[in-house]
Specification:
The protein is an alpha+beta fold. It has 14 helices and 23 strands. α2 (32-51) crosses α10 (305-316). It binds adenosine-5'-triphosphate.
Length: 434
Amino acid sequence: MEQIVSLCKRRGFIFQSSGIYGGINGCWDFGPLGVELKRNIKNDWWWTFVQQRDDIVGLDSSIIAHPSVWKASGHVDEFHDMLVDCKECKKRFRADHFNSDEDCPNKPKCGGAHLTEPRAFNMMLKTRLGASDDSAVDTYLRPETCQSIFVDFKDVYTSSRMAPPFGIAQIGKAFRNEINPRNFIFRSREFEQMEIEFFCRPEEEAQWFEQWMHDAWNWYLGIGLTASKMRWYEHPKESLSHYSKRTTDIEYEFTFGWGELQGLANRGSYDLTQHSKHSGKDLSFFDPDKKERYTPSVIEPSAGADRTTLAILCDAYYEEQVEGEQRIVMRFHPRIAPIKAAILPLVKKDGLAEIAEGFEKSLRKKFATFYDQGGAIGRRYRRMDEAGTPYCICVDYQTKEDETVTIRDRDAMTQVRMKMSEVSAWLDERVSPK
Ligand code: ATP
């Protein structure tokens, strides 16, 4: 993981938040390449699950909701981790991250061998809304994006004329006061989720669960994750969350070990029923064909945009020897690579830079491109390898004669020559999602 963290900082994928003040635990900033990568991941997810399907619609709800939402959802009473304190060094740990008979993980430093009994710690981040002390209300930054989907369920289906089986998707920030943020961006206190609540008839929930296992898994393959580094983890019945009838996670083998990439839960009718009860508003659905009113069941694929980005970074990272030198290359799938093509003049002089610059400007209208004329061509290729740019287009002396360029493939390091007029269609074929 150290190499990946260092590359992320060096090349501007991810920085520690508030770095010049010593950083703030569990918060991260995405730099110029990182923001493109994460945005491409989120856009691909939205494109796949919302824009390409006629049974899912989108939502972008507020981060701060009415405090009653969190009471109804069970988060005020149930959303906690068990934590233990070291009596010696006062550090806090999640009780489920080690055995109860183990010593403080910080023991070599603190010498402490005594941990307190586990106690519940609510992970929601509190905030206060309103200017004056007497009128201000305590509420929370949302710990998951899905609750407003349930709260807005009726507004969405009536305004969009959707009927079960259908889903509502949302991408957005979520906040959790994690006891031990760690493993780079894997466990943060501020992160982004990509969630779908899929509403169906209760008798169809098992069938939709299977369908979602299939669809969710395939999306990860589509953006380039290696299948052998993914697996399913079925939660045992006794450890299911209060709302879940069944949960199975897609796990990924990160460089620090296996970790949850996304959860898939059968939430039954728990959330709609709870919000109906607490708000006094009916959130059931009337099926006009069957002339029957029912509360839909919900299947929830809930993915993390940051964890997906981290999995993509781990999967793409390769170190190899090329002609006696080390090459670091990020093998991003072209579909999500931050830069699709770099346009490089072989040398700055003899009019090559002008041709390359003009060509880059014309491609920029359609693709995320990058122009670089500084340094030896080999060094420029290496910089683009580290940025994960799948194609480097070189303008050389032959370009002046016959309007052709070479295109270097990042992974194979082979080159093809083609007419400049054919490059746009050639790129489109390779970098656009299908
Ligand atoms: P974990 O067991 O790792 O704490 P969880 O089961 O609490 O995760 P969910 O509530 O199912 O996670 O959230 C859905 C998804 O949101 C997770 O699969 C993950 O991708 C993402 N996620 C949850 N917590 C965090 C976090 N602290 N940092 C980054 N991503 C997170």
